[in-house]
């Protein structure tokens, strides 16, 4: 099987993998899916993600379709490099292979400029035209005209706050802090139009490549507030050369006054996703972000 055949017959890929007709090498690919590098007969490579086998955890309906739609939508902006989707099946996604490389200050500044261009490509509404996922959890992408603040509270904070309460991850104190923030959310949004977001832009979803650029992978793409992507880049230790990313971004599209004080508001979405998925280990981060946001 070569790349041309695969493009013409994407549905045949699982059969070739089952019968070991393609060289497959496991690679790192996150906490949810199994990831591999495929080497085809013409020497080209692909990156594949598959849902781990097991009847107790079937692949959620539309899981890979949502990622494929998001990748295509981000790629259509022709701003930040995004891997091409070669095969999108219900339980498998195959993308062009991107050779990893070092994270350099020069690549970071370029990434900042390109991320600003991506955001400026815009979105028709907050949300997206396809059902969403964030990690393994569903994410409500029902399009909304806004305002952003109400949409963010209803679609990005409260659903994961409820899940985190249901699984016992958050105490009454943390819940009260987030609810207090939600009650005053109108003060944080401003009036910017929907930006074209990656939507899950923690540092692990930036692939520093051998071509000297930073690529976007594993999106939860949607229309949202551009500060959300930038705030997520600062989570979990922060992206390499984050200052250069921010400076490069500002060359193309300067951020509104007070954006640094609003960072914890935007980070709360991903932190609540983590308490919903992984439990109380992230409760302290939720509390710290909510307290910082309320002080802003």
Task: Characterize this entry briefly.
With 296 residues, the protein is an alpha+beta fold.
What does this structure look like?
The protein has 296 residues and is an alpha+beta fold. Helices cover 42% and strands 15% of the residues. The protein has helices at 3-8, 13-18, 63-76, 105-120, 148-166, 172-183, 226-233, 242-252, 259-278, 283-295, and strands at residues 23-27, 34-39, 45-50, 85-89, 92-96, 132-134, 137-139, 195-197, 206-208, 214-216, 222-224. The strands form 4 sheets. Strands 1-2-3-5-4 form a 5-stranded antiparallel β-sheet. It has a two-stranded antiparallel ribbon with strand order 6-7. It has a two-stranded antiparallel sheet with strand order 8-11.
List the main descriptive attributes of the protein structure presented here.
single chain, 296 residues, alpha+beta, five-stranded antiparallel beta sheet, two-stranded antiparallel ribbon
Instruction: Provide the residue-averaged pLDDT.
Output: 94
How much of the sequence lies in strands comes to: 15-25%
Low-confidence stretches: none
Major sheet: arrangement of strands = 1-2-3-5-4
- Give the N-terminus to C-terminus distance in angstroms: 57 Å
Major sheet summary line: 5 strands, antiparallel
User: For the CA atoms, what is the radius of gyration?
Assistant: 19 Å
- Total helices: the number is 10
- Amount of helix: 40-55%
Shape: globular
Order of helices and strands: HHEEEHEEHEEHHEEEEHHHH
The total beta strand count reads 11
């Amino acid at each position: 099987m070569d790349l041309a055949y695969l493009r013409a017959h994407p549905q045949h890929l699982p059969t070739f993998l089952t019968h070991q007709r393609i060289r497959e090498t496991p690679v790192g690919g996150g906490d949810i899916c199994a990831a591999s590098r495929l080497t085809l007969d013409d020497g080209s490579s692909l990156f594949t993600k598959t849902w781990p086998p097991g009847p107790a955890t079937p692949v959620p309906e539309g899981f890979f379709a949502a990622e494929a739609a998001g990748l295509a939508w981000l790629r259509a902006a022709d701003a930040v490099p995004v891997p091409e989707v070669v095969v999108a099946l219900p339980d498998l996604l195959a993308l062009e292979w991107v050779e990893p490389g070092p994270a350099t200050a020069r690549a970071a500044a370029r990434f900042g400029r390109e991320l600003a261009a991506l955001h400026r490509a815009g979105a028709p509404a907050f949300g997206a035209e396809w059902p969403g996922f964030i990690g393994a959890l569903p994410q409500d992408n029902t399009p909304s005209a806004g305002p952003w603040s109400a949409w963010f509270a209803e679609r990005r904070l409260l659903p994961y706050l409820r899940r985190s309460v249901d699984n016992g991850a958050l105490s009454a104190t943390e819940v009260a802090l987030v609810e207090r923030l939600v009650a005053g959310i109108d003060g944080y949004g401003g009036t910017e139009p929907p930006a074209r977001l990656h939507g899950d832009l923690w540092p692990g979803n930036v692939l520093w490549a051998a071509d000297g650029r930073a690529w976007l992978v594993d999106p939860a793409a949607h229309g949202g507030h551009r500060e959300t992507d930038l705030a997520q880049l600062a989570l979990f230790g922060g992206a390499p050369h984050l200052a250069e990313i921010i400076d490069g971004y500002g060359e193309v599209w300067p951020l509104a006054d007070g954006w640094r004080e609003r960072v914890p508001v935007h980070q709360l979405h991903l932190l609540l996703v983590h308490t919903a998925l992984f439990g109380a280990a992230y409760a302290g981060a939720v509390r710290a972000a909510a307290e910082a946001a309320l002080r802003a």
